Amino acid sequence: MVRAYSKRKNCYMKIKSFLLTIFFYFFLVSLVFSNEEDIYKKIDLFSEVLDKIDKEYVDEINQSEAMDAAINGVLQSLDPYSGYMSPETFDNMQTETSGEFGGLGIEVTMEAGVIKVISPMDNTPAYEVGVKAGDYIVKINDTQVQGKTLSEAVDLMRGPVGSDIEITVRRIGEKKALTFNITREIIQITSVKSKILNEKTGYLRLTSFNENSSNQIREKITEFKKNRKIENYILDLRNNPGGLLSQAIKISDFFLDNGEIVSTKSKRKYENRKWFAKKGDIIDGETLIVLINYGSASAAEIVAGSLKDHKRAILVGESTYGKGSVQSVIPLKNNGAIRLTVSKYYLPSGKSISKVGVVPDIAVAENSDEFRLNTETDNQLEFAIKLLNG
Fold it and tell me: Which residue in 40, 48, 69, 289 has the most C-beta neighbors within 10 A?
C-alpha cells in the first residue's frame, strides 16, 4: 500500500514538474508585458491549483489529457488560431493537407468557446445541405460543443466515410437553431474551376490556395486568351478559407504591374517583410471583378485587398472574414505540434485585415436561404455579369 502510494506520488511530482516547466516557458515569453514578480506569483498560484486538484477533485484524472489541456489552454489564450495538436491530431492534419480526406467539408475556427464555420468547401456534404460561413456549431450529434476545444470538436465530426452525423447550428438572423443531417464523404480538394460566361467573360473560381493554385490560374487564363472574344474576367474567391501566403502573392502579382502586394509584421524585426509586384499584367489590363463573401479568409483576403487598394479590380459581394494573421505549425518532440501565430498581414494601404476583413466596393448580399454558389440562385454572380455587360 505504501509502495503504491509512493509510486503514485512520484508520478504526480514528475507531472507537476513537467507542467510547471511548460508554464514557466510560456510565462517567460510574456515578461515583456509584465514584471518578474508577477510571473513568479502566477507560477506559485498554478502550483497551488495542482495541489488542490490532486487532494480534492472527486475523480481520478487522466494525467496525459490534463497536460494536453494545460498546453492547449496557454496557446488558445493567445488567439483563436493558436493551439496544440496531439500526435494523432497532427497526423490527421498532414493527411488532410495531402489533398484527400474523409469528413464534412468545412473549415472551422474557435470563437468565444464555440466552433464557428469559416467556410464550407464547394460540392462537399456540408455545402450541399446548406451549412454557411458564419454558422456557429452548438451540438454534434447529442454532444454539446460549448466547452470543447477545437481539436475535440473536429474529432467528433470525423468518422468513417459513409457514416451519418447530425450537427446543430445557430445562424445570425435565425431565431431557431438549424439542424443538418450529413453523410461523411471523401473530401477531394480541387483548387481552380473555370468557364466562359456569355461568350466574353472568363470566370475563375479559386477554392483554396495550395501549392499548384497559381500554375492552374495561369493555365486557365492562357486558355481563355486563345478565345479572342474574351473581354473581361471574374475571379471568384467566395468561401475560400485561404492557404499558402506564397500563392496569394503570386496570384495577386498576375494582375498587377507594380506596387506593394502585402506585408507581414512580427515580434522579431528580421521577420518583417514586404512583397512587391513585378511588371506584367497577365490579362493586359482587362476589366476584373472579384467576388468575395464572409467565407473569404486569409490568403483570399490578401488577394482581394491588394487588388482593391491598387484599384485594379472591383470587389462585389460581402465583407470578408477578417483573418489577418500567419500561423506556423511547429513540430514537437512527442510527434505532436503547435500551431502558433507568428505575424500579421497588412495591405498596401497599411490596414490590417484582422477582425475587420475586406469591404466590397459594391455590397451584394445573398438574397435567400436557397442561395448556392454558381447556380441559378447565385444573385452575386448574376450582378457581376450584369455589371460587366452594362
Answer: 289
Please indicate whether residue 323 is annotated as part of the active site.
Answer: yes
- Asked if 180 and 169 count as a contact pair (C-beta separation under 8 A), the reply is yes
Place of cell 474576367: 233
Element (H, E) at 187: strand 185-188
Catalytic residue check, 193? no
6 alpha carbon, distance to own chain's centre: 47
Residue with cell 484527400: 100
Task: Please tell me which residue in 151, 308, 323, 343 is annotated as part of the active site.
Answer: 323
Q: Do the bridges between strand 362-363 and strand 314-317 make them parallel or antiparallel, or are there none, so unpaired?
A: parallel
| Residue 236 is among the residues annotated as catalytic for this protein | no
- Contact (Cβ atoms closer than 8 angstroms) between residue 358 and residue 315: yes
Res 380 pLDDT > 60 = yes
Which of these is catalytic: 119, 151, 296, 298? 298
Report d(CA 82, CA 341) in Å as an integer.
6
Strands 185-188 and 100-103: antiparallel
Residue-wise pLDDT tens digits, 154-198: 888 988 888 999 999 999 999 999 999 999 998 776 789 999 999
Q: pLDDT, tens digit, for every residue of 268-308?
A: 888 799 999 999 999 999 999 999 999 999 999 999 999 99
Q: How far apart, in whole angstroms, are the C-alpha atoms of residue 326 and residue 264? A: 8
Using an 8 Å Cβ cutoff, are 372 and 378 in contact? Answer: yes
